[in-house]
Amino acid sequence: MPMNFRHRRSEEPEINLIPFIDVLLVVLIFLMLTTTYSRLTELKINLPTASAQAAKNRPKELNVIVSADGRYLVDSQQVEGRSVELLAAALSRQAGSAKDTVVIINADAASTHQSVINVMDAARRVGLHQLTFATQGNAGANGGEPAGNAANEP
């Protein structure tokens, strides 16, 4: 009995790209919706320049020193006690009626976080909203000279 082998016609495999394109479009839409764009590039502005005479018109500065053991000095006058109320009274006395006074917090590196928060709370209570922290640079970075301010509170 002879066997009759028929040669099957081999069909070439076909790759369907439509599902692949659909998946890529969904991924592209997802990336477009979840990407955050930098808002700094939206506005082109020219910053103002300052002169040496403009620096003389700075608002009054009020230095508050926080020692490592939690004592406070407001413009070189020691505050008796460590409560927020006493500190607020001292800040109010030194600032007077000038509400644009900048409070500079000079906290010892070993002072507690709560001591610094007390200064911020006392300043807020008397209406002094411009706060900054004094820091000192590393000796290797700039010769150990005091650095500028670190932060402002709105």
Largest sheet: 6 strands, mixed
Amino- and carboxy-terminal Cα gap: 100 Å
CA-atom Rg in angstroms: 33 Å
Helix-strand category: alpha/beta
Tally of strands: 6
Write out the strand line-up for the largest beta sheet, numbering strands in chain order.
Answer: 3-2-1-4-5-6
Low-confidence stretches: 140-154
N to C succession of SSEs = HEEEHEHEHE
Strand fraction band? 15-25%
Please give the share of residues in helix. 25-40%
Label the overall shape: rod-shaped
User: What is the averaged pLDDT score?
Assistant: 77
Number of helices: 4
Describe the model.
With 154 residues, the protein is α/β, with parallel strands linked by helices. It contains 4 helices and 6 strands. Strands 3-2-1-4-5-6 form a 6-stranded mixed β-sheet, with helices on one face. A hairpin with a 2-residue loop joins strand 2 and strand 3. Helix 2 packs across helix 3. The radius of gyration is 33 Å and the shape is rod-shaped. The termini are far apart. The C terminus is likely disordered.
Main attributes of the structure:
4 helices; 6-stranded mixed sheet; disordered C terminus; 6 strands; single chain; 154 residues; alpha/beta
Question: Helix and strand layout, with pairings?
Answer:
Elements: H1 18-34, E1 61-66, E2 72-74, E3 77-78, H2 84-95, E4 102-107, H3 113-125, E5 130-136, H4 139-142, E6 146-149
Parallel strand pairs: 1-4, 4-5
Antiparallel strand pairs: 1-2, 2-3, 5-6
Helix pairs in contact: 2-3
